[in-house]
Amino acid sequence: MGLRWDNWLILEIKHPNSLFYLTTILRFLWRILEEKKTVLYFYPKDGTPGCTREAKEFRDLAEEFDKENVVILGVNKDSVQSHKKFKDNNQLAFTLLSDPDGKVIKLYGVGRTLFWTARITFIIDEQGIIKKIYKKVKPKEHAKICLLDISKI
């Protein structure tokens, strides 16, 4: 489990239009990732019941994640416009990343369920090392489980 963040961030820098479109400035994101633990969660589709529940649970625990020095990033193939609507409708303060070509999804080995991205989460430490992978995620209480595991890192 030694995949490092900089493996794909370097690719992003070399090919800015080919990996995914960030809703924040790459330099800002890079700075956050160097200083914080990260919950990188892949989810199927904006606005679906399970994805909405999962996102709201991360939102509701945002203060606790902040205390643990954690940034939350959600990723799927939906457009930036879809992510903006999803964030606005659910008052989400964390970043959602659009990967329309599925290149980051593939890089992390995230599969598919039917037509959408599988629900998988990675916990990454401040050095960019993946510490835990959740492959069978159930939206209910997933954020709480991540928070408990992060407190042990």
Description:
This protein is an alpha/beta fold. The chain contains seven helices and seven strands. The strands form two sheets. It has a five-stranded mixed sheet, sandwiched between helices. Strand 6 and strand 7 form a beta hairpin. The longest helix is centred in the middle third of the chain and has 12 residues. The N terminus is likely disordered.
Poorly predicted ranges: 1-27
Q: SS-based structural class?
A: alpha/beta
Question: Averaging pLDDT over every residue, what do you get?
Answer: 79
What pattern of helices and strands is seen along the backbone? HHEHHEHEHEEEEH
* Overall geometry: globular
In which range does the helix fraction lie? 40-55%
Which strand order do you get reading across the main beta sheet?
3-2-1-6-7
What oligomeric state best describes the polypeptide chains here?
single chain
| Count, helices | 7
Write down the Rg: 14 Å
User: What gap, in angstroms, lies between the N and C termini?
Assistant: 15 Å
Number of DSSP strands? 7
User: β content, as a range?
Assistant: 15-25%
Q: Major sheet: size, sense and barrel closure?
A: 5 strands, mixed
